[in-house]
Amino acid sequence: MATSYDVIVIGGGHNGLVNAAYLARAGKKVLVLERRHILGGAACTEEVFPGFKFSVCSYVVSLLRPEIIRDLDLPRHGLEILPLDGTFTPMPSGDYLWRVNDHGKTHREIARHSRVDAEAYDEFGKAMQAMCRFVKPILSMVPPDPNTLNPRELMKLLFIGRRFQGMSSYDKYNQVQLMTMSAIDFLDQWFETDVLKATMSASGIIGTFLGVRSPGTAYVLLHHYMGEIDGAFRAWGFARGGTGAISNAIADAAREAGVEIRTQAAIAKIIVKDGKAKGVVLANGDEIYAETISSSVDPRLTFNKFIEAAELPADFLEDINRFKYRGSSGKVNMALDGLPNFKCMPGPGPHLRGAMSISPSVEYMERAYDDAKYGNFSRRPYIDMVIPSLTDPSVAPPGKHVLSCFVQYAPYKLRPGLHWDTEKEAFGDTVVNTIAEYAPNIKDIILHRQVITPLDLEREWGLSEGNIFQGELSLEQLFFLRPAPGYARFRTPIQNLYMCGSATHPGGGIMGAPGRLAALEMLKDLGGAA
User: Fold this and answer.
1) How far apart are the C-alpha atoms of 437 and 443, rounded to whole Å?
2) What 8-state DSSP symbol labels residue 506?
């Protein structure tokens, strides 16, 4: 059969769509195949209950690369980001911590808890900006191979070394600490207020099976600190219409460039002949051929499910089998008849327009992890809540609201005798009961509830073990080690087969960088203007 496409992209998540758009803009004939009925992967919007539109999995945006927004002209395709103002943390004592985007107000609020911390907060912000500036170019860089003698690769290593050398000794010290310390140990050096450290440390555990005291979580904190909206570090927001609007804007840009997109087109197998990828077999038996295959799904699906083990080098397969997923988070989405009423700040107000964080103390956060270590979901979990309908009324009927709860910990592997199919509703009840301790009216205003476990994320969204980043963002799985040593440059041991999802550098979040970087590398091999 004659080749009908230059590239087939497996998976219509946001990275796969970015990958396809860049390839098509360079003149390639591209087909995207998505297993689900809608595009976006985990960055999707679905009307789960009539009139209520949920950002079912990923729910906030900050890491989407500015160059992708610019190159694909996403605002013209309908992308609109609405700012998320601040983080509100209720406390059992009846007090609260409320940090907002207004610097003066946040300074006064932290000073209410600790004058020392209010001063330190400014210094911390400056230090983290310096760290972000150091790391930012690495997000747009194809990881160099440290074993190479290729002068171009050595220049990349030299570039990183020179940037590090150019930092002040103070910033160098902070950078090394960030790469090695736990989120709490790092924050302990700056702050004394328990609730402040607990809430800030939460960014260090997202997408990992680690606790706030586990080494390496300080880097994950930085990874989430690097969010950019309009060039401002640490700016988070909602996409109008939900996170699916981001994926749809990218898909529109891709279609405009000539990409063909098919949904409900599940892959059964990647066709490999003589060590080269030649095409794919769909679940319905159809065969589609292309010069090149680009997989935006995770390594377990790509190499363990879609390819015969005999086609892959044994050492590579060993590394892929060692790659850690260990999903640890779940989602509870609720359709509400009103707004939650917090005991510490009753009534509606601007505190409900930002993130609401159930992270009252460092001990609370660590105990939540203790449950997970022994195969239980957290009895008192860390919960990050947002009510996007306050900022974007289009996602709920008039007077009604959507509440999105990101929850940790919900370990994929429960202890013997427990299974997610039977524990699912108990997990949802735990989340509601935990919120009710701070906002007692929550149980009276829930109209509908959707509970998503790590097993659901695996079954429905193809995320192995329910890891939202297609693999943990732990130090041994970053940069030139992601997803395997020697294979961090988006190429694989199979000729003409590439990886372009979150399991590659620079990792997860609604970032798009893996899709873009993979496309640029593919075009070097395939020929075509980037």
Assistant:
1) 11
2) T
Put the strands of the sheet holding 87-90 in their side by side order: 96-99, 87-90, 355-358, 382-386, 401-408, 329-336, 446-452
Fold entry, domain 5-82+241-323+470-526 = FAD/NAD(P)-binding domain (3.50.50)
Structure tokens at 489: 């440059």
Q: Which of 507, 446, 501, 527 is closest to 12 using CA atoms? A: 501
Question: Any idea how long the chain is?
Answer: 530
Q: Residue 5: is the preceding peptide bond cis (ω within 30°)?
A: no
How far apart CA 145 and CA 142 sit, in angstroms, is: 9
Ramachandran class of 203: left when φ > 0, alpha when ψ lies in -120 to 50, beta otherwise: alpha
> What is the model's pLDDT at position 462?
95
Model confidence at 235: pLDDT above 80 = no
| 302 and 295 Cβ atoms separated by less than 8 Å | yes
Residue environment code for 420-430, b if the CB has 16+ CB neighbours within 10 A, otherwise e: beebbeebbeb
Helices (H), 79-145: 103-113, 115-139
List % helix, strand, coil for the chain (3-state, nearest 5): 40, 20, 40
The neighbour count for residue 447, using CB atoms within 10 Å, is 15
pLDDT of residue 224: 73
CA 89, CA 460: separation in Å to the nearest integer? 32
Q: In angstroms, rounded to a whole number, what is the distance separating the alpha carbons of residues 300 and 503?
A: 10
Q: List the domain boundaries for the chain.
A: 5-82+241-323+470-526
Sequence-distant (≥ 6) Cβ neighbours of residue 90 within 8 angstroms? 96, 342, 343, 344, 345, 356, 358, 360, 438, 439
Residue at 162: amino acid letter = R
In the numeric block, the tokens 């709860």 are attached to 405
Q: What is the pLDDT of residue 468?
A: 92
* Close Cβ partners of 345 (under 8 Å, ≥ 6 residues apart): 88, 90, 96, 98, 351
State how far the Cα of 227 lies from the Cα of 501, in Å rounded to an integer: 19
- 483 vs 325: CA distance, rounded Å: 11
The one-character DSSP state at 301 is I
Element (H, E) at 217: helix 217-225
DSSP 303: I
Structure tokens at 370: 């203790």
| pLDDT per residue as tens digits for the range 370-425 | 999 999 999 999 999 999 999 999 999 999 999 999 999 999 999 999 999 999 99
Quick one: CA torsion of 342, 347, 353, 356, rounded to 10 degrees?
0
- pLDDT for the residue numbered 174: 85
